[in-house]
Design a protein that fits this description.
By secondary structure, the protein is of the alpha/beta class. The strands form two sheets. It has a five-stranded parallel sheet with strand order 2-3-1-4-8, sandwiched between helices. Helices cover about 45% and strands about 15% of the residues. The structure holds zinc ion.
């Protein structure tokens, strides 16, 4: 049973695409026994369940438009409000200062973790990434191998490499991520909520990084 004092904490985790933040968040979820909320997943669930908000999102994506901030915020509010006393690890939000302000209205964040990973480490990792064609589960040929090569552990379907996991495409995504996240991270730095962790060694296991993050949130 996790007895860590971080239980019921409200944690936001930031990290560039390919930094492994989703993996760390799910490891922390287990250690701290608090829900892991990924806005990307929430949006997919709303669409799948054809909720009112899900139908609204479909309208934007079918028209090739970005889903507006306020729609994402509505979904987040709906999902976070019932679990506020339990705490959460939030991933994929906020992506702008405006969203950070909206989040403040929903919950008092205790700590914001920023994962710093050098570009070369991310390029190495993403170019060895494989994904399940069926359920979308992500593996890595070096660090997170499936039990059977080329097959998904969860559903047995075939694994493939995404076209956007090419080095030049990855570097472009990292540039965009930095431009968007820097003002939000500064916002949290000013509020003294920001804690940073650097992972420049691709051979360190996700469990060890998760332990380091755990120590950071418990300080
Ligand atoms: Zn699968």
């Amino acid at each position: 049973m996790p007895t860590d004092k971080a239980t019921s904490m409200k944690i936001v985790i930031f990290g560039p695409p390919g930094s492994g933040k989703g993996t760390y968040a799910s490891l922390l979820k287990k250690r701290l026994d608090i829900p892991h909320i990924s806005t990307g997943e929430l949006v997919r669930e709303e669409i799948q369940n054809k909720t009112e908000l899900g139908i609204e999102i479909r309208k934007y994506s079918d028209a090739g438009k970005l889903v507006p901030d306020e729609v994402i915020t509505k979904i987040l509010k709906k999902r976070l409000t019932p679990i506020l006393s339990k705490g959460f690890i939030l991933e994929g939000y906020p992506r702008s200062i405006e969203q950070a302000r909206q989040l403040e209205k929903i919950a008092n964040v205790d700590v914001v973790i920023n994962l710093i990973v050098p570009d070369r480490v991310i390029v190495d990792r993403l170019s060895s990434r494989v994904q399940c064609r069926n359920c979308g589960a992500i593996y890595n040929e070096q660090t997170l191998k499936p039990k059977i090569t080329g097959k998904c552990d969860k559903c047995g379907a075939e694994l493939f490499k995404r076209a956007d996991d090419q080095p030049d495409v990855i570097l472009e995504r990292l540039k965009i991520y930095k431009a968007n996240s820097t003002p939000v991270l500064d916002y949290y730095k000013k509020r003294k909520l920001l804690k940073e962790i650097t992972n420049d060694d691709p051979n360190v296991s996700p469990e060890i990084i998760a332990e380091r993050i755990l120590k950071l949130v418990q300080i």
